[in-house]
Amino acid sequence: MIAKNEIEKTNTQKKHLQEKRDEQQNQLNTIVKTISDLEKNIDMQATFACDKIKEPCPFIKVINKKTFDQLDLQKKTFLDQQQQKEITIKKLDTELKELDKIETKQDNQKIQELEKQQKEAEKAIEDIKAFLNEINYKAIETVYIEYTSQDKIIKELDKKIHELEQEIKQIEERKLQLQKAIIQQESITKQLNEYTITIAEKEQQRKILELEKEKIDVNATKLIEKNYLTMQQLYHDIDMLVNEFKEHQLERQKLEEQEAILGNLYTIFSKELLLLVLQDHLPIINDIVNNYLSQIVDYQISLQLNKSDADKVELEAKIIDQKGERDTKSLS
Fold first, then answer.
1. Do 116 and 175 fall within a single domain?
2. Is the residue at 179 inside a domain?
């Protein structure tokens, strides 16, 4: 096939030569015009009307010999330049013709190559037509229906997996709530102990004050009454804390029960159970995976469920090729 840069090189050379020829032609035209103007000037100067003989003077060139010699020399110089430009233009025309021949040869080769490519394309089209005629469309339709069915099963499994993930997320959220409730309970228990100690101290103070009640004046009695009201308020606060503590205990108990239920659900829908559910569909999944792999590589994959010594179910993959069956890393 003709290299693209060779054609571009030929076109560049042709363009360069054509520009050079145009430049030489313009210079030649200028020289021709200059010679023409010079000849007119010589003729005009050679035509000198003589009053005595009533016609042009035949001796004007002899009289002005130096001037006419200079004009003739200038004319000769321009004529030499004209001849040189014509030779250069002829040479350029020859080179352009040679490039035209090369370009024509390249065009012919390109046409031959295009015709060859056309024949190859027509042969490829015929081969494709023959291949299409040999295709078993019924088998393709059967495989497509089977693929659609398996794809539906896979989507259903994906949906179940998503539901399990959501349930696990809920379990984690409830665990968090339970931990917060436990922390709140511990805080309330600490406050309750502090208030109990305070009540005991106030109760002791009250007993002491009752023993000394008769010995103190009215102002002291008012102080005792004030302490009594304060103690009543403390009793009220303690009662509220106790009720709140009981409510938190009930809430904690409920959360613990929910945690136990969710833990059981998590155990039921664990990875091992999911793998056991997939076990019935492994032959179909193997067929689908190997159907795609056969179009890309020269080996197949065998997916199997194995039970380890620790009663752990794992999904393992093995490669089957010309060398036989080989183990791969566990995909569990």
1. no
2. yes
